[in-house]
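Provenance and format

Records in this collection were gathered into a single text stream. Each protein contributes a sequence line and a token line. The two records reproduced below are adjacent in the stream.
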Amino acid sequence: STPINTSSAKPGPREAFLESILPPARQAAETLGVSTKAALAQAALETGWGRAVPRAADGRSSHNLFGIKADSRWRGETLTLDTKEFLKGQWVVVPAKWRKYPSWQASIDDHATFLKSNPRYSPCFQCSTPEAFARALAKAGYATDPIYADKVISVMTKHNLTTFDGGIL
């Protein structure tokens, strides 16, 4: 286990966010055989380092770290909020139904199940680097943003998330 903040100073908001999700993210990544770094970067990007996690009208967190929408197969709680999607060459705001979780752990576990249970993501698990995983994820249609993979990779690189992998990928 690699400590995020090795100084005695209070961790900043990014470090505190990573510390809050690192144990379940590492466990899920090991189970999937993928990079913890990629999962952390994706959660950081999707939530603005935990500052923009979708919230219900009463202020309760959805704990949705990965921007996973609730389709007809989802049997859990949901939350409807507007989102920006890149459709037909332009950004548009549309309402979307999001999955709602009771905890970070539940969100991370569902993310792993979501990726493993969707055949379109199977190429992701053949990748040998976190960067290739991010590109395969984007190519499989995880997000409508045409530069989604570049953004995930930028978070990995800029914030040196490599230290969290423990040798995976």
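Adjacent record:
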Amino acid sequence: MRIRAPEMLALPGLKLLLHLITSGGYGYFRDEFYYIACSDRLAFGYVDHPPLSVALLRLSRDLFGESLLALRLLPAVAGALAVYLAGRMAADLGGGRFARILAMLATIAAPIYLALNHIYSMNAFDVLLWAAAAALLVRLLRGGPPRLWIVLGLVLGAGLLNKISVLWLGFGLLVGLLATSRRRWLLTRWPWVAGGIAALMFAPHVIWQILHDWPTLEFIHNATTRKMVAVDPLDFVLQQIRVMNPVTLPLWLGGLWFYFFAREGRPFRLLGWIYVTVFAILLVSTASRPGYLSPAYVWLFAAGGLVCENATRRWRGPALEAGVAALMLLGGAVLAPLALPVLPVETYVRYSRFLGIGPSTSERKELRELPQFYADMHGWEAIVEQVARVHRGLPPEEREKAAVFTFNYGEAGAIDFLGRRHGLPLAISGHNNYWHWGPRDHDGSIVIVIGGSRERLLERFESVEQAGVTDCGYCMPYEDDQAIWIGRHLRVPIGELWPDLKHYD
């Protein structure tokens, strides 16, 4: 069935336009620098993510450049396609125009999707790939041709190459098959073909993991035990309501009701089991971020749109439809400044306080005025300029040999990307993939170090002097007021020291 309805273009177009006009925001996000650095070193794997999003970024940089608008184009397109798939699924589930509109508006209004589609990261593509997998399952559940399993295998394989949490989706699919009458599909070759395709696509990354001693497992362990804030089950549930927007709550609850209790939803119950399975996995994990479950809501919105359409069929008219749509848009607009940097910082701080929402982070980090998501968009130019000033102050013979060492990949990535115009060398760091890339060709005779204490650095260098201090305004507090040191002459060769500097988290 083809949908030739204006809303199927207008609402995804609205989502795309919204992200394009806000792409400048507060500036580059911490992780974007890291992704850019990774895209300069293409590989089948990285310490903290698979290779697909990095490869796409390399292609995007080659085609469109490195401006914020260019960098954030693909995430915006991914968001628009996810909105389209929400409407498409609503139609395939049996919904009409109103159901399609509601499903798409809910996908637009969810703050977590606004945030994920604003910056470049694997998470923007994660939502799209989960939605694409669900859309294919809807088609199969409606009696679509078995060859769609091949496409589903390709989507799941791409999903795994983008983010390994697609394993949750795959496990949920298995549970759903076993828990419903669709278990008979397991007696055919098609689900196994899909799984084989996904596994084959994922194999190069698994081989990379084996060859590098499974660094991602070490990263996950360290992140969950040292870095992430523990979340109790009740808080996890309440956070789902917040990140998906309270105005969408009736819609996704209606979607769950549709899959498990509605007569017309019985053929599609498999999708309800996928959501419940992933929800249960994350609920029992005290280190789950609220956004981890977000890709699973698109098909709930699709079904919820149908439930709302059926519930209002008797008295629904243009006025009611317009009112409900306006309520959804208003709810999205109220919370949009919490996910899209559309307000000046001072205005944002006042607005969030008015809503009773304070700065938040899912990590064990100190905060000031801004949540970590926004603070991580501030201060990078200032930090790089301050390091460049120290670098320019070195004697020419030292400047040629100088390395810049940072304690996290955000600073290192900013040095690599923004430091080009200042003539800074590529940074070295012990954090995640920067440790994997090693100390390059530096001999450790002269190193500019951002952060740390003189006492600790004197354990490594024969002499240490402070040459500056970071001042980055609204940045994360741990980036601000850091000493910038010049360390001279490592006490041991840098190659011997390097293994001790690794920290995957």
